[in-house]
Amino acid sequence: MKEDLEKVYQKVKPFVHRTPVLTSHLMDEIAGCHLFFKCENFQKMGAFKMRGAINAILNLSEEQKKKGVVTHSSGNFAQALSLAAKNLGIPAYIVMPNSAPQVKKAAVKTYGGKITECEPTLEAREKAATKIQQETGATFLHPSNNLDVILGQGTSAYELLQEQPDLDFVVTPVGGGGLIAGTALAVKHFGKNCKCVAGEPKATDDAFRSMQSGKIETNVSANTIADGLKTHLGDINFPIILKYVDQIILVSETEIIEALRLIWERMKIVVEPSSAVALAAVLNQKEKFKNKKVGIIISGGNVDLSKLPF
Questions:
Q1: From the CB of residue 234, how many other CB atoms can be counted at a distance below 10 Å?
Q2: Which H or E run contains 171?
Q3: Which of 101, 178, 229, 289 has the maximal Cβ count within 10 Å?
Q4: Where is the Tryptophan synthase beta chain-like PALP domain (predicted)?
Q5: 3-class state of residue 143 by DSSP
């Protein structure tokens, strides 16, 4: 797997930005540890998902590329797959729930993705994606439960550990599980006694419960400001998470908003609420991280400015 990650990194490198790692003395004081923010909000299309999307497409056969790709996503993977497909000159069919933020739909269209809207249920999303597959012959790429996608997402932590090889922890948010699984693999193979931790909203605590029960749990409702984290784990990423993730820390909506505000005010960068969940987790467990070197993956910056909580 170590060699796989290195190969994937070399493959995606020409198509993605090597995003900056930011630090802040003030944030270190607030958190009581040394923070290193890996800023995927500066990635192409504004989120880490560009990495997984481009890797998954690059691994398709020429025949598959001609027929294009299809996915279902409420936002960031929809944008990532659309842009990655555009860059490689292949069609991208995107199923989006009709409740997806307008700003994300507009971005998908800008990147050339062909949108099909559906009811905001997983069943409706999967049904619409299957129909497109049958009609076009496009290859379905899951936003998070696909090994090529997972390894692509892991290149963010790989870059971070190249720059800061002696981190004690790398913390990410967890939603569908692609980022945390890829990060956990990078931490396992390229960290030195480094642990992988995730933050998750209490309102969507399925990953936390899955870690406890040892099987994939789901949520009945998902009332959280972290709209990118409303998806469930999959059968490909969950075994990786179970094996290599040290802990999932639950945070409240208030804690997420406070962390979001801190990043906007103190670091002067635009991040989306899902990104703030990782910092919220560190602030929630200050004793665990005290005086440690902590990498935080800022997952994205695609935010609807008309819906900020402050």
A1: 20
A2: strand 169-173
A3: 178
A4: 13-300
A5: coil
Mean pLDDT of 282-297: 98
**Domain 50-140, CATH:** 3.40.50.1100
pTM: 0.95
- Predicted pLDDT of residue 231: 86
Long-range pairs for 116-125: beta carbons < 8 A, 24 or more residues apart:
118/72, 120/74, 121/97, 122/232, 124/97, 125/72, 125/95, 125/97
3-class SS string, 206-274: HHHHHHHHCCCCCCCCCCCCCHHHCCCCCCCHHHHHHHHEEEEEEECHHHHHHHHHHHHHHHCCCCCHH
Tell me the pLDDT tens digit for each residue of 77-92: 999 999 999 999 999 9
Is domain 2-46+154-307 in CATH 3.30.1360.120, yes or no? no
CA distance 160 to 186: 10
Domain boundaries, the chain: 2-46+154-307, 50-140
3-class DSSP state for residue 114?
strand
* pLDDT for 62: 95
Residue appearing with tokens 């729930």: 97
H helices, E strands: number in the chain:
14, 10
